[in-house]
Inverse folding.
């Protein structure tokens, strides 16, 4: 065999070996890429599953109902209050909480959760009482807003009492009840800040604490002036 032939065979062998190595490398790379893609998919799924927790669902469900009660009271105050300051405050409460209800309802729908409270969710609010705002009665379902009272009154009883009042008497009782109502909202929002995982829900909870704490101070000032 001539030296030229030896060189040709050596070159061919080198090409075959190189091709084989490339194929092996490509296969390993493909497997690695597939493994990486699978890991990424698993991570994405885990991330998607971690976007909200039971605490977020409970917060949204309960706060929707709580806001609805506040709006009912505020709308009545816009009509009945004797003080222009009280009417203005009531209008601001209604205007702020309506869009928040729509926002929280949108979250629940996007999360695939019921908009109404789930009695089996088990988000226990018992032990989170505030002065004049009894949260006990949420111990069983964690969401049953019928158990929430303001100065010992349910939402329905509070509305019935307000409907029987006018002028300064209405203003005083509305402010007393709304202070208690806001304290309950702050309690729920603080619990969401401790336990929630959905960034959008904890952000809203922070705003609820800030805004409603400020409104509580305003209402106490108005009460002092009556």
């Amino acid at each position: 065999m001539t030296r030229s032939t030896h060189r040709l065979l050596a070159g061919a062998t080198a090409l075959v070996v190189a091709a084989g190595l490339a194929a092996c490398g490509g296969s390993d790379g493909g497997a690695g890429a597939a493994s990486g893609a699978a890991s990424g998919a698993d991570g994405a799924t885990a991330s998607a599953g971690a976007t909200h927790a039971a605490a977020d669902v409970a917060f949204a469900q309960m706060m929707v109902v709580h806001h609805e009660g506040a709006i009912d009271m505020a709308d009545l105050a816009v009509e009945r209050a004797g003080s222009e300051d009280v009417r203005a405050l009531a209008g601001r409460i209604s205007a702020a909480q309506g869009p928040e209800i729509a926002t929280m309802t949108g979250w629940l729908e996007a999360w695939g959760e019921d908009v109404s409270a789930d009695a089996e969710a088990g988000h226990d609010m018992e032990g989170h009482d505030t002065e004049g705002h009894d949260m006990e009665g949420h111990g069983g379902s964690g969401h049953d807003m019928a158990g929430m009272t303001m100065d010992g009154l349910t939402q329905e009883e509070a509305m019935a009492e307000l409907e029987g009042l006018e002028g300064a008497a209405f203003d005083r009782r509305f402010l007393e009840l709304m202070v208690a109502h806001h304290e309950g909202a702050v309690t729920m929002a603080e619990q969401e800040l401790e336990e929630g995982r959905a960034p959008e829900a904890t952000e809203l909870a922070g705003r609820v604490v800030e805004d409603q704490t400020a409104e509580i101070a305003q209402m106490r000032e108005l009460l002092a002036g009556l």
In short: The chain has two domains: 1-50, 52-225. The chain has six helices and two strands.
